[in-house]
Structure formats: structure tokens, C-alpha cells
Design goal:
386 residues, mainly alpha, Citrate Synthase, domain 1, Cytochrome p450-Terp, domain 2, 2 domains, 3-stranded antiparallel sheet, 16 helices, 3 strands
């Protein structure tokens, strides 16, 4: 055992584990880029399918390439019919929809004829198939869990548009489809976040890409990561009224509770995705009124009060992240809180798989160390003498 204690990077903070050309977070200047493109431009001019192409091929597609890619995605939307039975059985046990999604992805892997083909081309084909099926799985889980008939995907609708159609059985308005597409684009990829790292750890053992995504889903679930949006929604509901924000914040900080949807390991300035969502939420609030407007007012007030309190404690770096502002848009789209993390997962499947495909090109098993602080050479005492 080494005598000097090595430096331990708790939470792997500040540790680089790979090189990437996929995304860049400039956490001090509120910037996020996918393959060099600013997220604001992608939201304004692109769409989720094109962003998926960008992340797999490191460039924007030409018109014919895009049409072919989009057609492949639309063709791959259907899921095996027996998945509904699994969903039904798990829903009867009151499983959280995120647990059902994790199981469904694992289950459908056995239907992929290229499951154990590990070439870059096969991995892209599998990734595209899985990304295309994710919204179908989420909608199926939603409908079957509520005793509703599942709705088959439609090939004539865009990725985001079709997702809302499969959830509610109604083609969404252009505005709703754009809101959904924005949410999908904003969640597609995000540096070496916890779930992407988990996917890479799995993939670095040369396990298949579905297993890597299952690791990603499992890791995304927690409230410190993707589960934060659901937690932020319940936090706004607990506050109840904008007038209650002041008192709630005082109590929460006294009890050392975290404000869900605020703070970030990398952003020490405003999360640019949260800024986009906040602006969109403002538009949603005035358009829809009702619950989205109420949640928006609470969120705005909470941001104001919490930031003032954090600043007074010398923490100007704790600011809203994307999960703070998505619950308002989700509510307007009639997506219930238990589906927030699943929707995130459906989008992030592009990022997980693109990262895995990039990493395994120059693979090295991920295997860090832990520093042993226990005793050594202890005497074994038989069970009857302890
Ligand atoms: C995201 C998060 C896990 C980052 O954690 P981290 O990198 O370890 O956080 P930092 O090193 O910047 O700061 C840790 C300290 O800052 C404070 N802090 C950080 N985020 C806070 C929040 N949202 N509310 C209140 N205090 C917070 C706490 O005092 C915390 O210390 P503690 O461990 O004693 O409670 C954390 O900010 C958090 O839990 N946020 C809420 C959950 C969330 O929104 N997650 C989604 C992220 S996209």
C-alpha cells in the first residue's frame, strides 16, 4: 500500500476522461455548442432529426442526406407488440415509468439483428433505430399505464410532432410541435454528464450499445441529474402561490434543502438552455394561462428570491439549469411530471449513443482507482468465537 495519500477528485470534479468533438460547454460564459454550432442557432433554425445527424456525422446533412436520414428514423419508430405486456405488468406493480422505460430498452435490444455487431456503421444504425423508438416507448408507457389504448406512430409527422400525437391522439399545433422539438434539441447532448459517463463506462468494457443506454437511463433517473425537472415541478406545486415564495425559501435554506433545478457542476453562469426555456415559458404563460402561467410566476419569483439569497452567501454561481424551466412547457404540452425524465431520456439517447460511438473508436477500459483506508492483515475469527 502506498504511504502517501493520492489526491482524490471527489465526484471526479475537474477530471478529463476523453477528447470529444460532440459538444462544448463554456460554463463561465453561458455557451453550449453541438459540433461547433451554438445551441441558440440550432433551436432557431434546425430540428431534432437534423441535430441527431449532426451528432452522428459531425456535420449538417445535405438536403438528400437529411431526407434519407429522416425517412430511416420514421421507418424505425414501431416497437415490438409484446412490449405492451411488459409495460402492463410493471404498471400493475406501480413501477415508476422511468423504471419501465429502462426495462423496455433492455427488452427490445434482443429484437435488434445487429445487437452484437460493434462496427461504427452498425452502432450508428442501432443508435438511429433506438432513438426513433424512444418516443414510441415513452408514449406507450404513458398510455398503457393509464389504461388507454396505445397509438401507433405516424410516418408523416416530425419526431417531436409524432411524439405528442402518440401521447394524446391528436396532431399538435405548430407551436406545440416547436416547443417539443426545442426541448428535444436542448437535451440531445451535454458534455461528460453523469449519465453519459455511465454509458461510456459500460461501453468501454465492449458491452453493446443498448446496455450503454440502459446505464444512461439508470443514471439519468436521480434527482441530482435528469430527475431534477420532476422534483422542480413538485417544488413549485409545494410552494403553491408566488406570494409564498419568500417564506418557502427561508424555510428551505434553513433546513439545508436544495432548490431543485438550480446549480450545476459546469455552468457557473446562467445555463443557456434554461435561458431559452425561460423565454419560451414566458410566451407559453401568456398564450395558455392556467397552470403553466401559475408555475411560471412561481418560478420567476423563486429565481429572484433564491438568487438574492445565494448571492448574500457568496454563491453567484448557483443559477437555474434547464430542469428548472422545462416543467412549465411540459405542463402546457400536457406531459405529466412522471414522464419528464423519460422525455429527457428519449432526447439524450442521441448524446449517449453518439458519445459511445465516438469513444469506442479509440477505446480504453474505464477503470479508475479507490484509495483503501481500512485495516490490513486482520485475524480471521471463526463464526462461533465472534
Ligand atoms: C447540480 C448539483 C448536483 C451540482 O452539485 P455540485 O457540483 O456538487 O455543487 P457545488 O459544488 O456547486 O455546490 C455544492 C454546495 O452548494 C450548495 N448548492 C448547490 N446547489 C444548490 C441548490 N440547488 N440549492 C441549494 N444549495 C445548493 C450547497 O450548499 C451544496 O453544499 P451541500 O453539499 O453542503 O448541500 C447541485 O447544484 C444540485 O443538487 N442541484 C439541484 C438538483 C438539480 O437541479 N440538478 C440538475 C442539474 S442539471
Amino acid at each position: 500500500m502506498s504511504s502517501s495519500k493520492p489526491q482524490i477528485f471527489k465526484g471526479l470534479e475537474g477530471v478529463y476522461v476523453s477528447e470529444t468533438r460532440l459538444s462544448y460547454i463554456d460554463g463561465l460564459n453561458s455557451r453550449l455548442y453541438y459540433v461547433g454550432y451554438r445551441i441558440e442557432d440550432l433551436v432557431a433554425f434546425s430540428n431534432y432529426e437534423e441535430v441527431a445527424f449532426l451528432l452522428y456525422f459531425y456535420r449538417l446533412p445535405k438536403k438528400e442526406e437529411f431526407e434519407l436520414f429522416r425517412a430511416l428514423m420514421r421507418e424505425a419508430r414501431e416497437v415490438p407488440p409484446d412490449v405492451a405486456d411488459i409495460v402492463k405488468r410493471m404498471a400493475l406493480r406501480n413501477a415508476h415509468p422511468m423504471d419501465i422505460l429502462r426495462t423496455c430498452v433492455s427488452y427490445i435490444s434482443m429484437y435488434d439483428p445487429e445487437l452484437y455487431v460493434g462496427t461504427r456503421e452498425a452502432n450508428i444504425r442501432k443508435a438511429v433505430r433506438l432513438v426513433s423508438k424512444m418516443p414510441t416507448l415513452v408514449a406507450l408507457i404513458y398510455r398503457v399505464s393509464r389504461g388507454l389504448e396505445p397509438i401507433e406512430p405516424r410516418k408523416d409527422l416530425g419526431h417531436a410532432e409524432n411524439f405528442l400525437y402518440m401521447l394524446h391522439g391528436k396532431v399538435p399545433s405548430e407551436f406545440e410541435a416547436k416547443v417539443m422539438d426545442t426541448i428535444f434539441i436542448l437535451h440531445a447532448e451535454h458534455g461528460m454528464n453523469a449519465s453519459s459517463f455511465a454509458s461510456l463506462v459500460t461501453a468501454s468494457t465492449l458491452a453493446d450499445i443498448y446496455s450503454a443506454v440502459v446505464s444512461g437511463i439508470s443514471t439519468l433517473k436521480g434527482p441530482l441529474h435528469g430527475g431534477a425537472a420532476e422534483a422542480a415541478y413538485y417544488q413549485f406545486k409545494e410552494i403553491g402561490e408566488p406570494e409564498r415564495v419568500e417564506a418557502w425559501v427561508q424555510e428551505a435554506l434553513k433546513a439545508r434543502r436544495r432548490i431543485m433545478g438550480m446549480g450545476h457542476r459546469v455552468y457557473k453562469s446562467y445555463d443557456p438552455r434554461a435561458k431559452i426555456m425561460k423565454e419560451l415559458d414566458g410566451e407559453i404563460a401568456s398564450k395558455y394561462g392556467g397552470e403553466p402561467e401559475k408555475l411560471y410566476k412561481i418560478a420567476i419569483k423563486l429565481e429572484e428570491v433564491a438568487l438574492k439569497e445565494f448571492e448574500a452567501r457568496g454563491r453567484t454561481d448557483i443559477q437555474p439549469n434547464i430542469d428548472y424551466y422545462t416543467p412549465i412547457a411540459y405542463t402546457a404540452l400536457k406531459i405529466p411530471p412522471e414522464l419528464f425524465t423519460l422525455t429527457f431520456a428519449a432526447s439524450r439517447t442521441v448524446g449517449w449513443t453518439a458519445k459511445v460511438i465516438e469513444y469506442v473508436q479509440d477505446n480504453r477500459l474505464i477503470r479508475p482507482l479507490d484509495y483503501y483506508i481500512g485495516e490490513l492483515d486482520k485475524k480471521y475469527i471463526p463464526i462461533t468465537e465472534r
